[in-house]
Amino acid sequence: MSDDREPSVNISGGDAGGGAAAEFDPATAETRAERVVDRLGELYWQKTYGGQDAFTCLVRTILSQNTSDKASQPAHDALIERYDDPDRDLAAALADAERSELAETISSAGLYNQKSEMIIGAAEEILEEFGSAAGFDDFVREDEPEAVRDRLLEIHGVGPKTADCVLLFSGGRGGVFPVDTHVHRIYRRLGIAPPDADHEAVRAVLEREVPAAKCGFGHTASIQFGREYCTARKPACLEDPDACPMADVCEQVGVYPATGEVVDPAEAPES
Questions:
Q1: Residue 169 and residue 176: Cα distance in Å, rounded?
Q2: Which tens digit of pLDDT belongs to each residue from 190-201?
Q3: What global pTM score does this model have?
Q4: Nearest to 118 by CA among 99, 132, 142, 143
């Protein structure tokens, strides 16, 4: 995201990266998924999307895999400090990096041996095909989103969530709703996606039922909602049904306040 300051009004996107303004009004939402995102628009400030350097965004997202922002951010900062030279392309610097040195640099992110291999491999591939990090950035911003997503998925270590985050935060593409563990849990628990839906199936539901201009905000705000309210083990509704702002639109799939039990929606018995 290109600006961490709270804007004076809720915005979705912005000029950088092709974002577009969006209105938030749960009363006019056409689907339950849109109503949820509109409610999130009343809870959280939106940020601007697009404008991040695509290769830096890719590296940052690889570092964030299977770990928290608290752990991955220091790893990213250390990587940038060591390898980001204004006189040299970052992709070239990382393609030439000594794997053990890079692994040590990013050790706070966890799985550092695997992630260092992924980052070096991605840098080599991008350098060979696009010539530089800047060339890769142009590709992500200018080519057809589906073509960009398909190409990103061909890079070793890049899964759907990583590809979608690059499309959203670098390319500023509308209609992209990355699905992480929070999003996957929340929208199945709400009953908006089938309880046994995998990440890609949840993404398909959300990108179909949430207007394109609201998808990016929906992703980031859903993560915040998952951390504050709809946690994996102790969602707010367990102790107080009125504590959750989504109570009236949630089917509580896998959540049983009467017993205090919480299971993955896929493991909930059919009603």
A1: 10
A2: 999 999 999 999
A3: 0.85
A4: 99
Cα gap 91→84, rounded to integer Å: 9
| Rounded distance between C-alpha atoms, residue 20 and residue 38, angstroms | 15
Instruction: Count other C-beta atoms under 10 Å from residue 28's C-beta.
Output: 10
- Contact criterion met (CB below 8 Å) for 198 and 190: no
- 46-105 tens-digit pLDDT: 766 777 899 999 999 999 988 877 888 899 999 999 999 999 999 999 999 999 999 999
Residue 70 has a pLDDT of 81
Contact 1, 48 (CB under 8 A): yes
Written as six digits, the tokens of 240 are 């107080």
Q: Give burial (CB, 10 Å; 0-12/13-18/19+) of 54.
A: buried
The CA distance from 254 to 20, in Å, is 36
- 197/179 Cα distance (integer angstroms): 12
Copy the structure tokens of residue 38: 């509109």
Distance of alpha carbon 12 from the chain centroid: 15
